[in-house]
Amino acid sequence: xxxxxxxxxxxxxxxxxxxxxxxxxxxxxxxxxxxxxxxxxxxxxxxxxxxxxxxxxxxxxxxxxxxxxxxxxxxxxxxxxxxxxxxxxxxxxxxxxxxxxxxxxxxxxxxxxxxxxxxxxxxxxxxxxxxxxxxxxxxxxxxxxxxxxxxxxxxxxxxxxxxxxxxxxxxxxxxxxxxxxxxxxxxxxxxxxxxxxxxxxxxxxxxxxxxxxxxxxxxxxxxxxxxxxxxxxxxxxxxxxxxxxxxxxxxxxxxxxxxxxxxxx
Length: 265
Known about the structure:
Layout: E1 27-29, E2 34-43, E3 47-48, E4 51-52, E5 59-68, E6 72-80, E7 90-102, E8 105-115, E9 130-141, E10 144-153, E11 163-173, E12 179-189, E13 209-221, E14 224-233, E15 238-239, E16 242-243, E17 256-262
Protein name: MetA-pathway of phenol degradation
Keywords: Signal
InterPro entries: CHP02001
């Protein structure tokens, strides 16, 4: 299977994760105890965990979050994608979980199913869809909010076996409405590269890697949030004087800057 095809399912539910919510717009349905947040967005490059999901191209996205007053929630995320050597053109993520607090510590225990409607695995290829469990935490000491994520998938994208992901960082609120958000993460995958001859196991297509991002966001006008982010990942560097083979040389691992506009409702 082409290495470049195996990146697809690294997309995050809520693909504007690099853009912290400078303001949170919500709609409430009091009779049902529900809070509904809808966030359309456009971005210059759909990035997740330091890797491009659209091969350096723009994306239009929509995130829906419906939370009950008990803390139980469901949601969905939609985006266009582009993966060399595949017919995957859209992503639909389905989410469910439970949000609660222990004192000032806020926790989110949830699961996400990453689906690619219309995708069909090529001959000798593997499925891109997978599901993942995650624990997210946040703790605020104004003007700073610390955040962290730990995620596990029993069968990662490309049928590449168990995968683990850790991420940490903080959001710092500054004067004039700016928010600065550094993030650092690391992705482990059980089967990274092509297995031994004769094996029918799937594989991810690249080595385990880390990434770092730094974003600055601010409400521009009418609730529209603008976010500029710089992203670096270890797959974009050279090791031992030899350039990394990033998913077949598709350049989805290049370091870059991105611009995202979003509007929560």
